[in-house]
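Q: Could you write out the predicted structure for this multi-component system? I'm mainly interested in how the pieces pack against one another.
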Amino acid sequence: VTATPTPVLAPAGRATFAGVAQAARPQAMVLTGQLAAGVGNLAFAALAARVLVPGAYADLTAFLALYLLLHLPAAAMSATGAVAPDRLRALRPAVLMAGGAAGTALALASPVAAPALGLPVPMVIVLALAAPGAALLGLERGVAYGREHHRRITRSLVAEPAALLAIGVLLAALVGPMGAAIAVLLAGYLALAAVRLWSGEPSPAAADRLCEQFPRYARKTRTQTTGAGAAGATAAGFVLIAVLQMQDLLVANRALDAAAAGQYGVLSTLGGAAAFATATIPLVLLPAAAQGRRHAATAALGLTAAIGGAIAMGGAVLARPLVEIAFGDHYAPVARLVGPYLAAMALIGVVRVLVARRCAAQAGDRRLAVAAVTAAVAVELLAMSTVADSIEALVATTLATAAGLAGVLALPDVARAPAVRERSVTLATAIRRPEVIAVGGLCVVAAAVRLASTRGLWVDEAISVRQASLPFGEMLADMRTTDVHPPLHHAVLWVTVRLFGTSELAVRLPSLLAGVALVPVMYKAGAAIYDRRTGLIAAALATVAPFCVWYSQEARMYSLFMLFAALAVYAQVMAVRRGRSADWLLYAVASAAMLWTQYFAVLPIAVQQLGFVWVAWSRRRDRRALVGLVKGWAATTALIVLAVLPLTGIISAQFEAYSHRSDGLSAPSQAGAGSSTIGGTISIYAAGANLIWAVWGYHADGVMAQIAAVWPLGMLGGLLLLGRGRRGASVLLLALVVVPMAALFAVGSMKRDLFELRYFSGAVPVALLLGARLVSATTRRRGAVAVAGVLVVGTMAIGLVDQQLNGANPRRYDFAGALDRIEARAQPGDVLLYEPAYLGDVIDYYAPDLDARKLDAGYPSTGGTVRVLATDRVVNSTESAAKVGDVLARLEQTRALTDRFQRPNVQVWELQ
Amino acid sequence: MRLVPADERMAPSPPPEDVRLRPSRWDAGPASVAARRRAALLATGSTLFIAWYLTWLLRPERVGNPVLFGVLVVAELFNVVQAVGFWWTCVVPRRRRPNPHTPPYGDGAALDRHPVVDVFIPTYNEPVDVVEPTVAAAVALRGAEVRVAVLDDGNRSEMEALAHRHGARYVRRTLHQGAKAGNINHALARTDARFVVVLDCDHVPQPTFLERTLARFADPRVAFVQTPQYYANGDDPAEAHPLATAAWRQQALFFGPIARGKAAHEAMFCCGTNVVFRRDALESVGGFPEASLTEDFELSVHLHERGWQSAYVPEVLAHGLGPEDLAAYVSQQHRWARGCLTAIPRVLRSRLPWRLRAQYLLSASYFLSGWTVLVYMALPVVRILTGTQPIAGASADSFLAHFAPYFGLAVATVASVGAGTYTFAAYSLATSTFWIHVHATAKAVFRRPGRFVVTPKEGGTGRQLRPALPALATATVLSGAATWGLLQGRDPATLNNVAFAALHISVLIHGTWPAVFPAAAVPAASAPEEPTVVRDPATA
């Protein structure tokens, strides 16, 4: 055996696709075996359940659980063997003796152990017979991993379920659980034989002989002898990871009540399956990493992340049917947490690979790995013991621990990569640039401002959350029949709900992130179209723009719409200017995403297409430039059309449902729209109100009237534009603001509610870009530009404060506050009547336990408190107010009005 | 042989000291077909929205306070007439297209091969270094036999030396009457060339000046050919002289689309410099009228009355200096306003065709527009202080719906017709000196004698509060009224008037800023990263 120096971590370098693919081949082979084993074992269990009577099947499952327990030390041994096969192989006699001794002891104790284990004595004896085989199987597989005999391992992995399916089901049917147990025993020894014998590869003994005769063969096939430190660290690392993987279940059993612990057990079972799927990957990696093969780790990490991610996503998508079918309907509530928990298990899979990689390297890396995992185990245990009092908290802790540990283990690798080193130099230079610091600071401010939400969910958000809580297919079906929006935001929200639950912050997270991302996009767009100064002003405006902040705090699609709109403008300008494929692609993706987010995006997209026509016309004498433009334009247009084609079915269904919907008035109408109208008709003040909303946000009607009254200052803006010249991009931006607004103004004359800023919210970032340009081009003096910028940002900040804090803001609905108070006072038998009918979802969100009914759904004639909840909009509407008044009058005939309170835009009457 | 170091070879040559010797950055030529179509479209839209606004405004139920309403209507109608006249001048189809490729002497019968041209450079008190480049350039004019005469009303020996130094004739008078007109008439009597060029002493002609202008005299009806009065110090990219820049932007609008339009209407009038006369035409009207402060304007009326025609060459053929401080600007504008307003009765009495008469009236009456500014500024003050307002029976929504399109399109039309030359600085300077029109009107009405004051060619260096005082006083009144209004209440109606006051205050302060803070000139180094006017949509 040739000893080589202890390897360092695989030399960092740019991974090539061919190299990674080659390194992934053995992984894929073993992984196939592992997945086949998983599926085969599952199939055997399912078939056994069908051929055995329930009691017998229970015996078999108990036997299988003990059999798996028996193999746990064997799995740790496999990991040790993978990094130090020769050392492990030398332990074969000892392992055999230990296994034999354990088996003998168990057999001798079977009369006593059987009742304790809940098994018949013969089955315990079978279990005892399996003990030496289990120990040897772990050892031999470990050695095979270490020597990279992947075909052997695969064969061994497949042999076991194959044997079970071939004879296990038959024996179970003929003999019962004892027969099935014997089949399990035989299958284990068959797997041992498969890894020891029946291979085109030389057996370990033959390999030893070959190595002695041909040293080159030794170099090719054998790993170097790794010291005891590596083996010990690997064993310790893998045991600790197993603890990390299991301890949450132990804590859950202690901390949660029985029902919740049972639900957590469901999660743990599914998580165990996910962890099982990638369990072989680090074992295949270990010897390759020990030899310093640089693509092995990349392939292992990639496979682990891909499989883990796919399982997490698939699990999240299919959680409800999976849980209901596999575990029963009463476990359905935990389905929403399947996604996050599987994500945590996927991360633990990644951790296992990272630990394996470090354990195969230098002592320092090993120490780091073991220390990191030890710390993670301790931190998780501490966190779970102190703060985890619910399933959600336990899942969140597990997820956070796994993510943090993966990050800690990956960080040194990332820092060592030459590409990262090169980039880090550039990055270090870049982050010192004032504008990068400024934009970074603005992002922090934007995040802080958006996190400081001052309102609860309103009707539309609650509807979205209810839809996103449905299974994916049901959500789409619901959207087809009851909604008027495309499904991208709902799809994002659907995933978010499964990952993070349905708290206010969680459901608003996509909008929040889009709102923060808008800030750097605005900088890029401003800098690209005009100059860096304009970019910075645009970013500052987007940071505090009340409209942007408002929709960053709403679980609806408008924040995404604004982000995609800004991206599309930036990409179009860059595509026309540079013509790079990436620019065209970004334009196509952003445009398609816009359409998947909001149907009215067709208006800005049409304007942008006209922009292409214009540019093509201006290039008509430059054939080369024209051809380049037309190619990119045609390709992106085709991409957008292709991306939008799947929408046609949804659009058609929604349109049909909408046109057949007789109760159009029951849909939520535009809160605060009253402040934009005079006499309820569309007017120039409606346009003015939308402009005010776009720049200074939503305000009470009185404030709106005051802001609208200072319109003469708009004349100043118009005069300031005199002589400022005209860029093509400015004309495009102006058209992107004016055309959608004019189109919806025209449509709004027929259906008033459609002339509403949020439907053309994509125009807002564009308007902010133009505003930034107006500020930056007002004068050439930097100081004056700074003063003008501060003034504009200042007025917007004032608008933001008023929007967020003024309770008279007609867009603020404090359902949370009202329902909180109702819930606190509610007694069994109380009834909550609400008007309008579409408040059902928001009431379900905040007070699911209340007996809430529509106003016309009836109430107990006597007994119990009846509360009536209505929005101000209803109260202010003659017809609805009469309806509410009628019910209140009838209630007062049998009950007395005991309380009446108001929250912003919500009124509640309590009658006892 | 001495080798020049690379860096020395590569170094750009230092800019000329005198801005007048730099190449012009302005193109006075006709706009593109697309731009003309765009302007026509905007003008048509503006006209429609004017009608939309006036049909809303001129209704009995709109009358609030009758006096204020009457004043407002007069102001609005005046501005409407000015606006429509502006669009009519600039946007109507060209009736006569000047051919820039016409050979200088296309009509051999009408012009000599080598015509003799007298070049008059009248001067009074301007420094030698201002006049010398003009004289030097004049003697170097190509395309004719040039006889340069320095007409010195200041009787200065150094000017005589200057003239002799450049081979020019030096003419002085013993009796100084008729100001610049008298000076030119005096010289006319002592010269005999068939064509006469008049150059203000700060306007340095290009060598091609005569080649580009004399061609127009192939038409025997043409009495004079006018060229733009270009302010080289106002077209500085660094905007070293903000006031000259603003003044130049006003000039650019006039010598660009307006002058081209007037030429198309055969109504271009003489602007006193950078102009070539046919001596026969001048003699037919007895030379320059000496009783007027705007001798050039009245001379044009006389010539057109006699059936002569005028021509305009939209090319920068002479580089001059604009007023660099507010005092100089006020002096110039006051003279122009006074002269033009005084000429209105003369125009009304003239025997000109209606089209020419309308054009002259439009130009002369522009100097009444300061009154409308005064009205617009007074109305919010009156409303805030007394609660009285001109319009009643209309919601703010309704007013905005009818006024905003008119205002927006009017501004857009000016921007489009002016091709970006007319700036906010030009507007604010004109607005903040509204009082000049008021003062000039009073002088004209009460027939107070005027005095020809030569526009200073070099700016003052200190703070100029005196010429800015009327605007600052107005801003103070507006500020006081706005503050008072805000203290009284913040209802929408008050806020609306406060906003109007704030609009006027902003314009007034911006217009007077260069006079109050003269040191705030912008160094060239702080120019924006990119040029403001970019028309290539490909780089959009």
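A: Regarding packing and overall arrangement: The mean pLDDT of chain A is 82.
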